Amino acid sequence: MTTTKPLSIVVAINPQASFGRSRAVGPAVVHTLRAAGHDVTGLTEPDYEQLRAAAAAALAKKPDALVVVGGDGMVNLGVNLVAGTGIPLGIVPSGTGNDMSRGLGIPVGNTERAIDLLLGALGRPPRTIDAGHVTHGDGSTSWYACVLSAGFDAIVNERANLMRWPRGRQRYNLALLRELAMLKPIRYRLELDGVASETDAVLIAVANNTSLGGGMLVTPDARLDDGLLDVLVVQPLSRTAFLRIFPRVFKGTHVTDARVSISRARRIRIDADDIVAYADGERVSALPVEVEVRPGALRVLAPIP
Ligand SMILES: Nc1ncnc2c1ncn2[C@@H]1O[C@H](COP(=O)(O)OP(=O)(O)OP(=O)(O)O)[C@@H](O)[C@H]1O
């Protein structure tokens, strides 16, 4: 175990991450950080909004770090609190997808090792990475770390959120099948670094990280610290073609298909009728959104790449 000078650390825990299957992770993080001599404020609340408010109040006291325990939704909560503030963000993954941890090289499914790496990272300067800054149609703003998407997968998310049954991952799978049956092109109005175009597509994603959905390599060459965002556009596809390309996303080999394109940009405006954007798996807002990369806006407690 690495030792460092005692630090004040806020730990925000989602006990419902991974459908409540990883409740032991939060207490283990708090216990191990305390045993290492740190001054730890452990936060658990009945829901996300209350946890966000409690973490914001704790951050007003300027702690040395914020650690989130959960999945990408918790990373999103943390990113929205610390981006641009200089406060380092640590992540102990206990969610379903954990794509930010995957991108940062934080072990998924090995809590002990993830906590050990966190302790190590607390003893050296944080890694600096980019963040996505989103301006919504009403002028409000938010941040994200992994992938913002506004198309088929966002439609599936919307559908899954409206469903009461089944519980867990099956709800998402069922929503996917239902929406696949209705797959149709979306007319997008897109602007990449000031260059406007109109295009029909089934999916547009703007990525800082390589994956979403638990390791699906949507933008396999994205870099967290290159000062750029990778823009994935999937042109209209038949259901059969979609089902043929879909499994290839897990290895990132879909990018060789002629209907898939990836380009890089700093500022992206996406608009389409009746489409809601999601980022890091959380609902952002209805389109239009304007996304801008903010190089170096995040400091993360992660292994050295
Ligand atoms: N007590 C709670 N504290 C925080 N979040 C909660 C709580 N109860 C339910 N949630 C919900 O958990 C969601 C975030 O879950 P999180 O991302 O941490 O795990 P996951 O969904 O299993 O993982 P991933 O996003 O990586 O697939 C939020 O949308 C939030 O509404």
From TrEMBL:
Superkingdom of the source species? Bacteria
For this UniProt record, the keywords arranged alphabetically read as follows: ATP-binding, Kinase, Lipid biosynthesis, Lipid metabolism, Magnesium, Metal-binding, Nucleotide-binding, Phospholipid biosynthesis, Phospholipid metabolism, Transferase
* InterPro entries on file: ATP-NAD_kinase_N, Diacylglycerol/lipid_kinase, Diacylglycerol_kinase_cat_dom, Lipid_Phosphate_FormReg, NAD/diacylglycerol_kinase_sf, YegS/DAGK_C
In terms of Pfam families, this protein maps to: DAGK_cat, YegS_C
According to the UniProt entry, its GO molecular function terms are: kinase activity
Cofactor or coenzyme needed: Mg(2+)
DAGKc domain ranges (all copies): 4-138
Similarity field: Belongs to the diacylglycerol/lipid kinase family.
Q: What is this protein called?
A: Diacylglycerol kinase
What organism is this sequence from?
Leifsonella bigeumensis
